[in-house]
Amino acid sequence: MQNLLQVVYCVLLIKAIAQALLAKQEIAVDRCATFLLKDTPMDIANLPFGTTDWSRIKPTEHRGDTGMATWRTQNFGPIRVRMVTYSPGYLADHWCSKGHILLCLEGELVTELEDGRTYTLKPGMSYQVADNAEAHRSSTQTGATLFVVD
Fold first, then answer.
1. Which of 45, 53, 88, 136 could bridge 143 with an S-S bond, Cβ 3.0-4.6 Å?
2. CATH number for the segment(s) 2-46+54-149
């Protein structure tokens, strides 16, 4: 149960950080974060405090079967963090088996699992999946902006 609470808290924390980034605001994390995350299995080592102005990160474009994904990517040791914008009508050109924690900031994202299940994320919703757990692909009719950690 404690691990589930930690995951929920991490998702909420990521949401707050992403919203502050979009609003170009600074945020403070209270002592509650330290208490809730003190036993978390996530190991973020050798990472000094820093900030990221996502508007200054050079975008890279990735074509889908239809539409375009624009990534702004930062790597922090083994952790990749991205702001991803999908154009309206985007459909991924592959099934992804990489694990992610993904938060929808704007628009609407449809994630299809290889077994046929589909999930729709709207702003403030997230999903998480482990490496090699369930292959998935993304699409959007309206466009979407995401904050992704993998």
1. 88
2. 2.60.120.10
Give strand ranges (E) for the chain: 60-63, 68-76, 79-86, 90-91, 100-107, 109-113, 118-121, 126-129, 136-140, 144-149
Q: Domain residue spans in the chain?
A: 2-46+54-149
Q: Find the mean pLDDT for residues 19-40.
A: 51
- Using only the alpha carbons of the chain, give its radius of gyration: 16
Range with the poorest average pLDDT among 1-5, 129-133, 146-150: 1-5
What is the H or E stretch that residue 7 is in? helix 2-22
pLDDT confidence bin for 35, thresholds 50/70/90: very low
Q: Which residues make beta-bridge pairs with 102?
A: 127, 148
